[in-house]
Amino acid sequence: MTAVSFDSKLARAFTQAGVWPFWALLGGALMVLAVAQTILWPLNGFWIDELFTLEATNPALPLSQNFVENIAPDTNPPLYPILLRLVRAGVTDARVAILVTAALVLAATLVFVILTSRRVGMPRLGLAAAATFVVSGPVLAFFPEGRAYFLSMCVAYAIAWAAALDTVAGRRETGLGWYAVLGVLASLSHIFGAIFAGSLATTLVGFGMLRGRRDLRDAGLALGVAATVVFVIWFATIQGSLGRVGWIEFTPTAVWDAIWYVRTLTFGPGLMLLPVAAILLLAVRVERARPLLIILGSAFFLFGVLPLAASTIMPMITGRYWAIGAPAAAMLLVFVAWAFLQRRDWTTRWAVAAVSLVLAAASIFGISTAQKITVDKPVWHGAPMVAALGEGCPPGSIRVGKNMYENGVGQITGLPRETFFDASLENVPQQPVSRVSCPVIGWNEHLNPVDDVGAGTPDSQLLARLRLASLPGEAEIVRHRTGYVVLKAGVCELSAACPR
Length: 500
Known about the structure:
The protein is mainly alpha-helical. Helices cover 61% and strands 5% of the residues. It has helices at residues 3-16, 20-40, 48-56, 63-71, 79-88, 94-119, 123-134, 137-142, 149-169, 176-189, 191-211, 214-237, 252-266, 273-283, 290-311, 319-322, 327-341, 347-376, 383-389, 409-413, 459-465, 491-494; strands spanning 398-400, 420-422, 431-432, 440-444, 468-469, 475-480, 483-488. α9 packs parallel to α11 (191-211) and α11 (191-211) packs antiparallel against α12. The longest helix is centred in the C-terminal third of the chain and has 30 residues, at 347-376. The protein is elongated. It starts with a helix and ends in a 6-residue tail after the last helix.
């Protein structure tokens, strides 16, 4: 059997096989996602940004009040908190509501991909791409998080899918209205969603003009204009809140860490980039793959460069922001495999096998990376202890660290917010531990990695951060990875709330 006849049969097997194996592939991917989320459930918890989301979407308040007081002034666009707030109206448990919201967004994305692929007669390609998206590292990691990243990731994937599908179809099958809607959703989901939409719109317009593809040019214009107009309107409304992103650093180390984060989450270890690069270089020889490489490659380049340029004015680089566009990179490999299947030479069998192995390995690494990211989240681990021991304490008795008082101490513990006192305010006097009539004296969470809270850090230093003064034997400190709780001496001996 010659290589040519083998490759011809391989191509026919893909194009003529029933669709049900690809539905089974998608079903298997959804099962992997479900199992991964089951594993992550006991490891997961809320960190400060998620606590703000929960505070902003409090279902006990009218949606209009949620929007005016918390959602509209935030430095993130309003689409995700509005969706979560609507879901929380019918789902009481906050973590379940977050998962339900993510499931609805994922379902909408998969429906869009599958229906558009059927429209152009490529249902197998759509199902393969949908399955790859479901088990990608970024999806596995961000699916259970109560922030806008997963939503924006889904919108970015839908945009990239529509552009790629219309490119290989040779005509625009996705209506201009859909491109406009996706542009609006991108800008209402996250600033990096808007950047991704703008980057892809630019490449569609440029490629369409250079190659005489008016359909792609018009698609890029619809996408770009819609995303830009909505983004400008939204950005003009949050100028007074931009100080909240002052924590982002723009240094070579910070940029490199962000690149490392996205690479690890998307493909796994650095060695995985070697087969990915080899596949893309080989794909340059494939005529059907070259337009995709040009359009998506240029979009990824702009998606990386534009935030770097903007960061010289206002730092905005973090790994989780760039991760919004990461699943589209795996999607490019799916389209590359499809392009190889259209050939009839020796490269087909090896290229398709290589793409399949790379995507499978990336998914396996994605599961482990998602688990690591979840474990490393700066979760407020002290909350259960404070909730159990702080019940009935008088107002102002528990000193808390910076950004804690206004971001969820009451909601996460169930205690009245007046129980806590913001020790990060200016001119706060020192409080002798002996004068506190509460088992819990202080609580500090969400500390940066440079704020060492390990056993080697003196108790006096941790007490000083909360403006507390203690004599030997008056207090004990319960530490965890990113925070600590200050208790009256002997409390843990009498309470099961302390970790053993």
